[in-house]
Amino acid sequence: MTCEPTATADPAWRSYGASRRSTRAVRVRVSVALVAAIVLAVLLVPPLVHLDQQAVDLSSKLLPPSWSHPFGTDDLGRDLLLRCVYGMRVSLLVGVAAALTATVIGTAVGAIAGALGGWADRGLMRVVDTFSSVPHLLLGIFLVAMFRPGVWPVVVSVALTHWLSTARIVRAEVLSLRARPYIDAAVSGGASRWRVAVRHLLPAVLPQAALAAVLMVPHAMWHESALSFLGLGLPTHMASLGNLIQGARGSLLAGQWWPTLFPGLFIVIPTLAIAGLAGAWRERINPRRRSELML
Amino acid sequence: MLELHDITAGYGRGAPVVRNATLALAPGESVGLLGPSGCGKSTLARVAALLHRPEAGTVTLDGDPVRGWRYRAPRTQRTAIGVVFQQPRLSCDPRLRLTDLIAEPLRATGRRDEIPECLAELAPAVGLTPDLMDRRPHEVSDGQLQRACLARALVLRPRWLICDEMTAMLDASTAAALVAAVEEYRAATGAGLLAVGHDQVLLDRWCDRTVHWKKLTAAVHE
């Protein structure tokens, strides 16, 4: 008699796990396709399509979506599809720049605090606590209000309010690494503090920091939109997603939904796609967490 | 001489792990330190290797009193002592290939140009074949990794060697090979050895004398 696996309970389990996995695979594919499409559009449309996104045409203002204007036109007759692509370009630039800056600051602060310990650690962590105690959108508004509207003040404002969690994650990681015997071995081999940090500690925390950076891109884009919507972020002539929605508020009340809806989708869909990719990446580098989440 | 005098050491909370331990090694001497699990012998070994600052007591290394531990110890004092730890997995940076692992102390002390020569000499001495040298720690066995750890400890040609349960995780033949490699190095250089362990038979055969943990700490109180 051969010993066959019991067929009664297994298929349910298997199909449960399999459907779970296939949903995840589909989600990753959709996310990759969306991010690729957005990046391509943002990179290729401006040099290839010779249309002026700023061209005002008052005779065709506030046209609903049609074949000639798939997303319709805004209150100055500018094509919304083109404006959205240009806005995406600015938002993505701000998001990536702010996320990278925040991650570099956070990693540096966390690594210094964790590697040095003692008063340096206590001092730096109190700075982190101080920053965290103020609502970060409020702090961001305060920072951006100190400058003339432009791309870089927004980047600085978002970066300076978003390095805190990275600093905490990196510090915790470095503290746990610091006690490993391989650091003892390096010290015994004559390595300086600096060499231990650069050669052994930083490479170990880089995957975590990179993941934090990617997860922060959508968040930073939301902040750019929020600041621009409040009129504090980018200058109003510059097409950014926040500016587009801000400019469309009046026409929304008049029943023209397209100038609000399409830029809104342009914020939501890419951020979901990037977050989906980052989530899949996190599951890959941290499988234990995945199994805990799947229970 | 490597002298530990009246050492009290611990990890901050509550009672210290090591109380008033005294131990002296003559140049070229090999001493086995025997004790049960958890008695504090590894902590004492870390103090002797200048990796853990004791709460009280003095360490004298070749006539010079030790004033700082870890990064605060002068590099010449730190590198005069080679250390092999109990668990090879934990004592190796998982990102480094065995070649880099062994050469790391040479790089850290600015002696890059000696790397090819040292590796060519050390790898056969500890029994590592060339095909292993390009692998990372997770691609070799515990025994092979511990051989690399021994090579790393020897690469700066220390005057003292501290082996903290070096063979506890290994099978008999690998243990014998590693002990033979240590003895070969000592015969060539006259280095002193502190071998920490719980295997009395091994330590008795390996070392000039074996000290029991109890006697080490009792000597001061008597």
Automatic annotation (TrEMBL), chain A:
The chain crosses the membrane at residues 30-49, 90-115, 201-222, 261-281. It is found in: Cell membrane. GO terms for cellular component: plasma membrane. It comes from the Bacteria. One of its GO terms (biological process) is transmembrane transport. Keywords: Cell membrane, Membrane, Transmembrane, Transmembrane helix, Transport. The keyword Cell membrane applies. Residues 88-278 form the ABC transmembrane type-1 domain. It holds the Pfam family BPD_transp_1. PANTHER family: ABC TRANSPORTER, OLIGOPEPTIDE TRANSPORT SYSTEM PERMEASE PROTEIN APPC. Belongs to the binding-protein-dependent transport system permease family. This is ABC transporter permease. It comes from Streptomyces cellostaticus.
Automatic annotation (TrEMBL), chain B:
GO terms for molecular function: ATP binding; ATP hydrolysis activity. GO terms for biological process: transmembrane transport. It holds the Pfam family ABC_tran. Residues 2-222 form the ABC transporter domain. Keywords: ATP-binding, Nucleotide-binding, Transport. It comes from the Bacteria. This is ABC transporter.
